[in-house]
Structures are given as structure tokens and as C-alpha cells.
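Quick note —
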Amino acid sequence: MDPLLRIVDLHKSFGQLEVLRGISIDVARGEKLSIIGPSGSGKTTLLRCVNYLEKPTSGHIYVDGTLIGEKRAGGEFVHLSDRELARERAEIGFVFQRFNLFPHLSALDNVTVAPRRVLGMPRAEAEERAMAMLEKVGLAHKAKEYPERLSGGQQQRVAIARVLAMQPKLMLFDEATSALDPELIGEVLKVMRELADEGRTMLIVTHEIQFAAEVSDRVIFMDGGRIVEEGPPAAILPVLWHAAGMTIRVTIGALIVALALGLVVALMRISPLRPLRYLALVYTDVLRGTPALVQLFIIYFGLSDLGLEFDPVSAAIVGLGINGAAYVGEIYRAGIEAIHRGQLEAALSLGMTPLKAMRFIILPQAIRIMLPPLCNYAILLVKDTSIISTIAAPEIMFEARRLVQATFMHSISGQIYLLCALFYLALTLPLSHVASVLERARERWR
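Predicted structure written out below.
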């Protein structure tokens, strides 16, 4: 059976910069193809070339056997007129990263405008179809709302309904969730999963690695304008996704150790007892002054010589937690000392013990100051888990190295590590968003 989409030796340049370098893809009818890769690898440009929002420099695109964007004339290929191209684009749906709803039209009118103005459909029939599409994406009750009254996730779902109303042969999704807040991503991915289950032909550019693994029949990895690896998701993604789970496990474990031990260190640093202050200072200076990797080796290899053995994951949690406590302790201390001493004196004057004053008065205020830097520390901790691959803890970097060592992956080691970086990015982006929210909240608290 002929593919629904065929891309043949596609090239695209912007001036001297060649963005696509000989892309050739066949996509079967009903196939879900996810395109992943680092920023600047040409993923979005490839999608935009498929429906000629960008004119390729060379190469050809066929949808259902029909040449897109050009025709043969006198033995040569010539570009279509705008009118001819518009007819072909009507069969290729494009869901944009930034929604691109028409702000002067309601949700209903956004969905009906193309069926009425392009397909010539009567208003009543177009509205009936539009309501069915809005119902499909769970927004029939928002039909009369204008885009400015909708959340980002709702706007993207209306954009999907707008595409569905044209009943396209092929749907293109250009990072449809990347402009959304984390809490809104799920509602859009749910709609996309349902469309995939219906057997629609979809090209999906995404950074949602788990989603790509779940819905895709095939995944291609792009870098430098080329396809450097392709195959079923089972080839690479589940291995790294399982490793990401281990990274999360180690991060959470080490964070708990760092938060608990860091509080003890901070309280010792501000203690009136000089020996405790001195001990906490030595701990902080030593742990911050020596490489975390060396500390990890001491715990995993050195302590085993003394009969105290850790498995790689436990050693990673303990090592990163102990190291992190030196930094977290300073965050705690800075937050506590930022609270005016009068607050402590007021609490003591009411009959509170120093411990109760710390618990009920000082720490609740200090936590507002400490939360943003603690979130930043959590982001650093996620990335620092990469060093535990050196003791064979099966996190992302360890599995990436193992994949590279496989014979068929050796030629694309750089790309595997780029994919590895994408996984770390996917884990840290929600934390970055939380840190930004807390920073804004702290300004309001002031």
C-alpha cells in the first residue's frame, strides 16, 4: 500500500543556513509518527514544509499520491499558485505551538470559519459540525467564549477542533503542549491520545517523551537537519524512560536526606553553643570544598572496605543527600537569619520556648524566602544524578552510555546524549516553572 505521506530528499535553507539536509520519510495511512530532537534540529521546519508554510529549497512532498505545493509543467516542477496551494492545505491540518486562534472570533466561529469560507458549507451545517468537534475536545460549553477568556489548554483544544472540522487526511502537531503551563498539558495530551486511538495519521513534534512512547508507531530522532535514528519507540525511549524513573527516585531520596540533614546543620550553625557551630562549619566547608563524585566514591567504594556496603542506588541517595545538606543548610540559615530578631523576641515574650518560636514563628516566615532557592537546588540535584552512573546506578546517563556501547548505536553517540539531555530537561522544566511561580509569589509577599 502506498504511504499517505511521502517526503523525498527534502532540503530547506535560510540564506547560508541549511536547516533540512535531505529528509526522506514515508508515513503509512493511520500511522502516528513522533519527531524528537534538540532545539534547532529542524523539526518544526520539516512540519511547516509539509503543508508549504515554508517552501522547500529542493525535494518533493506527496500526500495521498498528490504532489504538494508544486506541479509538473513542461517536464519541470513549478510552484502552485496561492489558490491551488490553498486547496491542498485544506487537507493537511496544522496545530500550532502558540494556538493561533483568531481573537475576534468566538470558539465556535473559530471552528466554523474554514468549513464555511473554504468548503462553502452552509452556516447551520458548519455549526453542527463545529459543535461536534468542540464536544470531542470537551469544550462544547465554551462555544460562545472568545480566546482571551480561555486558558492555554482550552485554546489549544479549540485549535485542534478547528483542524478536525476540516476533516484532514493528515494532522501535524508542532509542540502542541510546549507553550502550556504544566497543569494544562494533560488535557491536551488526552485529546491527542484519543485522536491517535481513532487511527488518524499524525506527525507529532514533541518534547513529551512518555507521550511519544505511548502513542507512536514510530519515532524519529533529528539532529542538525538530518534523521539520525528511527524505529519503534521500544528501540530507545522505554529504556531511557525507565532510567528517568530511577533518576526521579534518587532525586527524591537525596532531596529528603538533604532537607532533613540540612535543617540540622543550619540549626547547629546558629546555635549559641560554639562546639556545635564549629562542627557545622567544618561539615559545610568540607562537603562544599570537595567534589561530590569523590564523596560518592568514598561512600560506595571506601566504606565497603570497612564492611559497610551500599548498593549503587542507596549509595547515590546517601552521597548526594549528604553533599546537598551542606548547601541546603546554608539556604536554611540565610532564610532564618533574614527574619528580624524582634520576631524571636516577641515569641519568647509570649512564653514560647526557643524551639516553639523557631517552629511556629520563625520557620513559617523563613520558608517563603527559602522556597525559590530550594527549588533551584532541586533542579541542580536532578542534573547531578548524572554522576551516579559512575557507580553503575541505572539512571539516565548510565543507560545512555549503555545504549552507546551497543554496536548499532555507536555511530550516533552524540545524538543519544542529546536525547539524554532532553530527558533531563523534561524532568527539570516543571521544577523551573515552580521556581518562577514562587519567585513571583515572594514578590507579592513582600
